[in-house]
Amino acid sequence: MLVLAFDTATDVATSALVRDGEVLGERVGLARTLLEDVDELLAVVGAGAADLDGLVVGTGPGSFTSTRIGLAFARGLGLALDLPGVGVSTLAALSTAAPDACPVIDARRGEVFVEGPRAVSPDDLELAPGRLCLGSGAVRYRATLERMGAEVPEDRDGRHLPRAALHAALAGELGPVDDIEPVYVRLPDAELPRA
Fold it and tell me: What is the DSSP string of 99-146?
């Protein structure tokens, strides 16, 4: 089974082609380059879009716009090619990057997205000493997290990226792409809170 997995929820988009659990190729880019990245992945393995058997998409939380780009791409491709798909939380994927990792995604506005999911100030996190923190929020608030006793590794090997191959490994049963829902923790900036 050839699966295309991708996540666009953070500032960096990742994509991967996975066949029966084996990663055939990965790309790191931006949400706006997802189509190009997928085209390159397919070309490298000598496959076309018609060879895909399923889709796995990151559902956030993260940037509202970037998350919507990924979901729109999944729905469009899924409907056009009659492909099933499944969503996987970006936090869940990051948490599997290392044993006992605490996923921390930059939520802007001085906050981070963490498991729950919820948005909190980095100062309000309760972390055990030595707890490994991974993600864009961990990098941005490194000094705060390290002051609290957490460990934030350097990003030499892309450990802070929500790698699409991790999403593929966590994917459950594939179903209709229209059933995949984003994980939003708060209202989009463009929507005023309603009383």
Answer: TT-EE-EE-STT-EEETTTEEE-GGG----TT-BEESHHHHHTHHHHH
For residues 103-113, b (16+ Cβ closer than 10 Å) or e, as one string? bbbbbeeebbb
Length of the chain counted residue by residue? 195
pLDDT averaged per 10 residues, the chain (length 195): 96 95 94 95 95 97 93 96 97 92 95 95 94 96 96 85 91 95 79 56
For residue 110, is it left (φ>0), alpha (ψ between -120 and 50) or beta? left
- Sheet of 112-114, strands arranged across: 105-106, 112-114, 118-120
The pair of structure tokens assigned to 170 is 């966590």
34, burial (CB in 10 Å: exposed 0-12, middle 13-18, buried 19+)? buried
What per-residue confidence (pLDDT) applies to 146? 96
Q: Where are the domains of the chain?
A: 2-90+162-179, 94-147
DSSP character at residue 194:
P
The CATH fold assigned to 2-90+162-179 is Nucleotidyltransferase; domain 5 (3.30.420)
Structure tokens at 112: 């981070």
